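Troubleshooting: if your tokenizer reports a length mismatch, compare against these two reference records.
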Amino acid sequence: MELRPFRTADFQTLFDIDRACFPPGVSYSWEELARFITHRASKTWVAQEGDAIIGFLVANREPGQVGHIVTIDVVEQWRRRGVGRALMDAAEDWAERQSLKLVYLETAEDNLAAQAFYEARGYAKVEKLERYYANGTAAWLMVKWTK
């Protein structure tokens, strides 16, 4: 597996992966995902195995030296094989190189596997966001202070 920067030709595949990873109302619309990826303060890493894209992560830099993990998506058959860990490592290393003070993300209240993954990486739940997603699902805001 290799991590590489996003290429414009990747977009349809990333959109399809996001739709497969998250239910309607949690997954992003075409326009939302495009806006996040192309924002001037964003960075997108793509995980690839051979010719296949197997995951991706979008992060952005926000005012106040804050990083936001917008989404991390791993193709189901590649989960629990180090893809998510590699993507998070890349984003957190980037945050440190950018001298960001903290990184935050949101994860669905019912996504216990994701919550455990983030907690093992040092993220803490700081606030429950009621009806955060378009489908009405609540989310946890989770934060990790950088070194």
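Reference record two:
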Amino acid sequence: MKKFGLIIAIVLVCTLVFTACNDGGISGNNDNGNGDNGYNGDNGYDNGYDNGGDWVDPDGDPDPELAALLDELVDGLDTPGVFVREVTPENFEYLVFIDYIAGTRGVAHIAMLNVVPHAIVLLELPDGADAAAVAAEIEENSDPDRWICVGAEDYAVFTRGQFIVFAMTDADVIEGIEANLSVLD
């Protein structure tokens, strides 16, 4: 009976390998006939790349003024590779853990690898919004363990006028951001 089970297992493994090879999955031959190797966006998958070029934010282009401010906030700090994305009504709750506030503009530095727990979000609230109350709500709802299998070392929420900076990353990066808050004045 053991021999019969072994034979079945070998047949199943051979079948899986043969099927994968014929589909191009193991052989590495992903040429679809037009010179596309299947990795540059022409294969029908939305992988965030513009035909093999630069990464394109699916949420739109981030506000250049806010992106420049966020870059100044992290200037000289040891951060992982990031991409900058616009904060939109659709991704607002994912990025700051609260419901969207109408009229808010924002940008975020997100680690390129999902296994690196790093996110820094800069929000500019509309006139009349209570920045301290919004910051308190973000802090109360924050989850530094939202990444798969990893968590941020620390997190903090800072306010400066109508700006809110929410960071979930390494403690030394958060200290550096706090030291650089004057760029928001």
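Descriptive notes for reference record two:
- The CA atoms of residues 90 and 100 lie 8 Å apart.
- Strands lie at 82-86, 105-111, 119-124, 154-160, 163-169.
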